[in-house]
Amino acid sequence: MHEGRLNGVGGRIVAEVFHRCIEASRYSILNEPGWQPALGARQGGFTMADLLLFAAGGKAENLNPLGDKP
Length: 70
Fold this sequence. Notes:
Blueprint: H1 8-24, H2 48-55
């Protein structure tokens, strides 16, 4: 199959949900014209992987609590 990855319509739906949540928030980064990411592997860049790692407390092992192989 797709090895646990979303693509096509599934990926688009997930992306749209995140985008709409960000747009609807009163505290959205979209309301700050000069906003630049302060976290992330590279200056001025912030990926979904960076977001997940931040949410997992900076511990990559928390992203896979069941220990399943990728």
